[in-house]
Amino acid sequence: MLKFVIRIFIIAIVVSAFLYVINNYHPFYQNDLKRIKKNNQINIAIRFGPTSYYQIKNKNIGYTYNITKEFAKYLGVDLIIHPIDNTEKALSYLNTRKVDILADYGVYENVNLSYVYNKVNLYIVYNSIYSNKPANKENIKNNSIEIINSPIITKSLLEYDIASTKIEINYEKNIDAIINALRVGEVKYTILNSDELMIYQKYFPEIKIAFQIKTDSPITWALPRDTGSGIKNKISEFFTEMLKTNKISLIHQNHFSDKLNYSFVGSKSFINDLVNIFPLYEFYFKKYSKQYNHDWRLLASIGYQESRWNKDAVSYTGVRGLMMLTKDTSRELGIEDRTNPIQSINGGAKYLNKLLKKIPDNINPKEKIWFAIGAYNIGLGHINDAIILANQDNIIIKNWSEIEPYLLKLSQSKFYKKTKYGYARGWETVKYVQNIRQYYDILVFLDSQDEILEDNKNEIIPNTL
């Protein structure tokens, strides 16, 4: 009996060793980890999108991007990003090893799936301006739901079983393009996951949930079907370490926290901060505005939109301080400590002045400041891209209101592929400038009636503000 047990034990060891060798060295299984290390780079495909990957001021940003950046660092190799909107093209790149990983494409067949590092809910959403909330599934029937090409979304919709509802899979549009169509009433329903919904509702509060169709849908990476266990094991080790150190949660919080809100705070909240916080920095806003020939009320409004006049503010993009200057911009401006509120205000005023000088001469001189403020948020390259898009429509941009529709197009694949600087969350910049205008209008109004600040009689502020 003992000999039999020993024999079984030895056979088990031999079989395990054989399977390990086959999985890593058999010609049908490729040692992708070894190749990645040898080439000293990992190629990862990511969709452009507000929750995954985009750029601000030539800096790569995004929840998915930041995680892939951490993984490349974990492997000790360079990260090469391939922004691909088309799922079929991304799969082709994966199968031919042009990319090593598809990050968050929602692909689950004929690939190796890696560690599940996030879970999201899926919702059918609608525009409350054009439609009422459907009372039940029956109300959605005989309508269409337009979605991006994501197998996991299609599968979830079919499982939800909305009979006679047409599912329109758009192979060319990205999610921003579909949301824009929803925003203007061209699309009645689409699907968003809970992370996307959190981002979009900050800018488009009219987007509402009709139904939840899926709970805890897994977010994972896709690897080639014939990959060896080396890269799969490394990904598992990486995410285990990220969870242990709470880094995954921190990255998610940085991108989706409620504090990252571009909503206008309301005149009463603004005045409360004006009374209690602004006096600490009023002298410096006025000093540096005068030095760089700005309206102090406008510079103060930018500071409020950037940080709510919080000297310790840190954004999800890594910018810091009261005027939210990047490390590179601070260095370029000669600002030694961007977290110092006085230096930050000086830097913000100097940077705005620098941007203002780069705004094209054909822009209305009185409107140039809004273009500079838009560039303060999104970067001058994207502002110029929007102007070029307008020129292609034979529209010569002179005023800020004329560029807004083209800023919105910078997030849509049909348009950003034609631009030099690519995808941008243009709708964020439109809201950014809109908010600053509102804060500025309040300051102009209050500055003309100083006694209001003394008595804090904010109830007489015009309702339009």
Can you describe what's shown?
- With 465 residues, the protein is of the alpha/beta class.
- It folds into three domains: 25-111 and 223-256, D-Maltodextrin-Binding Protein, domain 2, CATH 3.40.190.10; 118-219, D-Maltodextrin-Binding Protein, domain 2; 267-460, Lysozyme.
- 50% of the residues lie in helices and 14% in strands.
- The strands form four sheets. A five-stranded mixed beta sheet has the order 4-1-5-12-6, sandwiched between helices. It has a three-stranded antiparallel beta sheet with strand order 10-7-11, with helices on both faces. Strands 2-3 form a two-stranded antiparallel sheet.
- Helix 14 (341-358) packs across helix 15 (368-378) and helix 15 packs across helix 19.
- The longest helix is centred in the first third of the chain and has 24 residues, at 2-25.
- The radius of gyration is 26 Å and the shape is globular.
- The N and C termini lie far apart (88 Å).
- The model is unreliable at 21-28 (pLDDT under 50).
Strand order of the largest sheet: 4-1-5-12-6
What share of residues are in beta strands? Answer: 5-15%
Q: What is the strand tally?
A: 12
Task: Tell me the number of structural domains.
Answer: 3
> Tell me, what's the shape?
globular
Integer-rounded radius of gyration:
26 Å
Low-confidence stretches: 21-28
Characterize the largest beta sheet: strand count, sense, and whether it forms a barrel: 5 strands, mixed
Task: Give me a quick take on this structure.
The chain has helices at 2-25, 32-39, 63-75, 87-95, 151-160, 175-183, 194-203, 229-244, 247-256, 267-276, 282-291, 296-307, 327-333, 341-358, 368-378, 380-392, 400-409, 413-416, 426-447, 450-455, and strands spanning 41-46, 54-56, 59-61, 78-83, 101-103, 112-113, 118-127, 144-148, 166-170, 190-193, 207-219, 221-223. By secondary structure, it is α/β, with parallel strands linked by helices.
